[in-house]
Specification:
With 569 residues, the protein is an alpha/beta fold. Helix content is 45%, strand content 19%. The strands form 4 sheets. A 7-stranded mixed β-sheet has the order 2-3-1-4-6-5-17, with helices on both faces. Strands 9-7-12-15-14 form a 5-stranded mixed β-sheet, sandwiched between helices. Strand 2 and strand 3 form a beta hairpin. The chain is flat. 30% of the residues are buried.
């Protein structure tokens, strides 16, 4: 007697397996959508640290306020007792300049008035202006960017004949001025301001100089022609500069040249560079090049038995020599080249002529943002007694005077032109007065801030437009530091603290340059999204096709079952 054997129905078995397959396909599709795609997207995305875009946009709308503290000191006899009581303790004069829609600057002069002390009155009775200026400086040095103007009665014997304004080596000026006892306070103020304005424009920044420093942000025709020429001639602001002195001896068979460049540099150039230490770091080196010719044949003038280099030939002089200098290629900083050229015996004497056909007194010329060249003629004496090579001891005092003048121009320290009744104190061995240094710091600080805003704005636009550029933490840190330093520089300029403002502007430009030229910004510059998909689709497609087909099949079966159910109902 056999038992009963139960066999499952085929339709029920197939239904169970189909249901299990549907659930597996849905689970795989769900895992791919919920876990796989986000994980893949996260692991392949470009890392981009956050940047202060709002602060960068605010810096792009540059609103500069330059505050100059000016102390006006009235000595005994300049004002009556009644006028002294009515003169205010302080005053403010402002002038705003709008360069374009995103660049303006406001010049603010904060005047503080007071009388001279007993000690200052004693100093003003000294026999000479230079002694009085030195003694006043020992009493009060003043801060960078500030000015001190002393008003002295016209009857005072301190001023030489024909001099009414004396500008010293420091940040102080002495003005010979007496006010009529009948003048009221407003009339005294107008008379004083007209006199002070010319002195301040001489000793501090000018509107044209600031506009030239902002030249990258404005059209070139918006600032004064003279200052635009000074701007194009001077080197751009840099953390460091390299100065190279080169002696060119094209005819060593005729000349045995001896130049004591080391001693001359220590005596004439180093004090000047020490004074400029707050501006940048400087390094000085020298070299001698033999058989180095200028590459331009000078023109012989029979009347004077001399050779001439015309002004239009001077640009062609530099190229042949520059190829042999070899200093700029190995330097991270701008190189200032100063060349001393001793012409060949058969081209001597050699003189430089300007555009008007007149001899240049210094027998030298300079090239904007490159350097200068001086032609040094040898005195051969009696031709009958000549023995070659001629030993020549170069007069380094004469040479260094020319090179120091050219160095000032190339660093942006332009010559000050004043009227005949002004007397400017000689800067002495340092070659630079305190107020000239302040003028340079004003323009360099503004130039640095303008460069930082332009650099950061360009970087922000680049990173916003190209989303595949990596922004690592180091770049973000430099950008944040640059923005913070630029904001500090702006606030310090507004407060009239020039030294702190310039230091902050140097930090800002250094950080912005590091961020802009960081090598990591170029790693994924040419790897856009379409290339990313082109790389990964061949990997995911074999897995995605079965899943998608299964989902399509499940969707179709679901729709069919819905239709059958509706018919049954």
């Amino acid at each position: 007697m056999g038992g009963w054997r139960i066999t499952p129905a085929p339709c029920l078995l197939f239904s169970t397996e189909a249901s299990r397959g549907k659930r597996a396909a849905l689970a795989i599709a769900l895992m791919a959508a919920v876990l796989g795609l986000p994980l893949w997207w996260k692991t392949t995305e470009t890392y981009r640290a956050s940047l202060p875009y709002a602060d960068i946009r605010q810096l792009g709308l540059l609103r500069l306020q330059l505050t100059v503290p000016v102390e006006v000191i009235f000595s005994k006899g300049t004002l009556t007792a009644d006028q002294q009581r009515r003169i205010p303790a302080s005053d403010i004069m402002e002038k705003e300049t709008v360069l374009n829609s995103h660049t303006t600057f406001n010049c603010r002069y904060e005047f503080r008035y007071r009388r001279t002390t007993y000690e200052e009155d004693e100093i003003l009775s000294m026999p000479s202006l230079s002694e009085a200026d030195l003694a006043l400086q020992q009493q009060s040095k003043g801060i960078q960017g500030s000015l001190s103007i002393v008003i002295i009665p016209e009857a005072a014997p301190l001023f030489p004949q024909g001099v009414s304004v004396y500008i010293g080596k420091h940040r102080r000026s002495l003005i010979k001025l007496t006010f009529d006892p009948s003048l009221n306070t407003e009339e005294i103020r107008r008379s004083l301001n007209s006199k002070l304005d010319r002195v301040i424009q001489t000793m501090s920044f000018t509107e044209e100089a600031i506009s030239a420093a902002l030249s990258d942000r404005i059209s070139p025709d918006r600032f004064h022609r003279d200052d635009s020429e000074n701007s194009r001639r001077a080197f751009k602001s840099s953390p460091g500069y390299e100065i190279t002195f080169t002696l060119l001896n094209p005819d060593p068979k005729s000349h045995d040249l001896n130049w004591n460049i080391s001693s001359a540099s220590e005596q004439y150039i180093q004090p000047f560079l020490d004074k400029l230490q707050p501006v940048a770091n400087f390094s000085v080196d020298s070299q001698i090049l033999y058989y180095a010719i200028l590459g331009v044949n000078p023109r012989f003038v029979k009347e004077t038995s001399s050779y001439i280099l015309n002004a239009h030939n001077l640009p062609h002089v530099i190229n042949p020599v520059e190829a042999r200098l070899g200093s700029s290629a190995a330097s991270l900083y701008p190189v200032l080249n100063f060349l001393l050229y001793v012409p060949e015996y058969f081209h001597s004497p050699l003189y430089i002529q300007d555009k008007d056909g007149k001899r240049v007194t210094s027998n030298a010329f300079h090239s904007p943002r490159w350097g200068g060249i001086m032609v040094y003629n040898v005195d051969y004496g009696n031709p009958d007694d000549l023995q070659f090579p001629v030993h020549v001891d170069i007069d380094m005092v004469k040479v260094m005077e020319v090179f120091l003048t050219q160095l000032r121009l190339l660093l942006g320290i332009s010559k000050v032109y004043v009227s005949e009744n002004y007397q400017l104190e000689n800067p002495g061995n340092e070659g630079l007065t305190d107020w000239e240094l302040d003028k340079l710091l004003w323009t360099r600080a503004v130039e640095n801030i303008a460069t930082v805003t332009t650099t950061l704005t360009s970087l922000a636009q680049l990173l916003d437009q190209i989303g595949n550029i990596v922004i690592n933490d180091n770049v973000a840190s430099e950008v944040y530091n640059s923005v913070s330093s630029a904001q500090i520089a702006l606030s310090e300029l507004e407060a009239g603290r020039l030294e702190n403002a310039f230091k902050a502007s140097k930090e800002a430009i250094t950080s912005s340059e590091k961020a802009f030229f960081d090598p990591s910004l170029l790693h994924l510059l040419y790897f856009p999204d379409d290339q990313k998909f082109a790389v990964y689709i061949p990997l995911f497609l074999p897995m995605a096709v079965p899943i998608l087909l299964s989902l399509v099949k499940i969707a179709k079966e679901y729709r069919l079952s819905k239709k059958e159910q509706s018919k049954t109902d």
